[in-house]
Write the structure tokens for this entry.
Amino acid sequence: MGTERGSILSRVAGLVVAVGLVVAVAGCSGGGTDITSSSTKPQSGGILTYGSVQQPSCLDPGFAPETATGMIERNIFDSLVSVRTKGGPVQPWLATSWKVSADSRSYTFQLRTGVTFHDGTSFNADAVKATLDHIVDPETKSLNAAGLLSAYKSATVLSATSVRIDLKRPDAAFLQSLSTTYLGIQSPKSLAGTPCTHPVGTGPFSFVSWTPNKELDLKRNPAYQWSPPGTAHTGPAYLDGIQFQFISDDAARYGALTSGQVNVIENVPAADVKALKATGTDQFFKTDSPGTPYQLLLNSTKGPFADEKVRLAFQRSLDIDGLVDSIYFGVYERAWSALTPATQGYDPSLENSWPQDVAKANSLLDEAGWTGRDAQGYRTKDGKRLTVYWRTGAQLDRDQRSTLAQGIQADAKKVGFDVQYVAEDTGTFGKNIFAANLDIWGGSEQRAEPGVLNSEFASGETLINGGENIYGLNNPTLDGWLSEAGATSDWSVRARDYANVQQYVVQHGLQVPILVPANLLGAGNNVQGVSFAPDSSLRFYDIWLG
């Protein structure tokens, strides 16, 4: 579950185009520090094999949105700045320093020298400008990065080692956005070629080959000398290379780890966590993901859920505690808010504030006029059944989502909802998503910044603009809080506004938080130096094989 980017756009739009983890050993969870599994002196050499549940749709981080893309490409691409811990300071990386104008609309970066791309060309201000312009170019059709750059106006090359970035408006999350893989700096030469299939960055590993539906190979960059502050070592990576094997089937992926066919797997099936901990030959790591929980976003712009009473009735009809515990064996926590507890700005006051209440759900539906019942027990109004459509792409129907959907269908039916869970082919699914032709969307977005709420609920952050506002929600109350929070650097103001947003979207039934996503990672005992980034993704640079 922690391996999907999870955002609406990152799993919807990415799938359409594709056709298609701080931590401690033995299952302890935490918040994203540099604690590692190392127990002896690091050594160089060896190829790490990694079993991934998901594969990229494209290897251009400026276009592709999936977590698989971000995880793989963090090894290929470096960013201007780095954030090592949740809520921690922004630190230099490819940029050695920066100044911000008094109106927070202009950032002037001084750049590191002596850095080269994998194709031999030099990193400079031209590369920064080319990368950012590429992302916002309509021809790129960016499915995530453009949303992170929604405030971007232009970049001006001042010299080979200095670039000014101007914004259309202040953006409090701008530096954090620059630290993400999706805004990683690309070689201008590669951008003029085929970045989707041959990515070129300055990172600790370079691209070798990609066989879709099978594997992707990276090799160590022997010239690497510019890791960000806070890494466990400097210089080239320890590993000779990394091979990502794409194994979508849970049983096959788990079997590949326990049989020694791969060194590491993601998305350890919840039912197998207890057994994995007991093997004595493997390690288990869990780190809760920041961003939004796995949630059901309800379409308030049309259909049955345009009525707030119907949305709240659906929300209160669900035994979320029971569903999460029974399906995921206590591995995942039940969610209460539009942000996860691992996210700065999370509002804990929502915990236990809206438990299942079947009587209230029934009363709300009565008030909304759904007073009839048909032969199957579903609510009716003016002769029409209370049917809502929950669409998903066939390739996204994993992590026991269909089992979870069945439980939600059963709970909702008790008060009269007919929930149609529909797994569609890629083409049909894409058309329905971009036309907002659905009542329920299930997803999450993995990001170590509360500004993720802007992406999901601000009126300007629609899919076509690179955001996650799938239904075209236009709510002036939310826009006011989100706009203020997005523009100010005063954390007390941001925290207040984001708390207001979290309370509003739950209290008005715009979303139904289900569970807190986490990176569940299994690794052989020879895998050392394991650590996780603030977004819960695995860091490969400091890993070594014992």
User: Anything to note?
Assistant: DSSP finds 16 helices and 25 strands in the chain. The two ends are 28 Å apart (CA to CA). The longest helix spans residues 491-507.
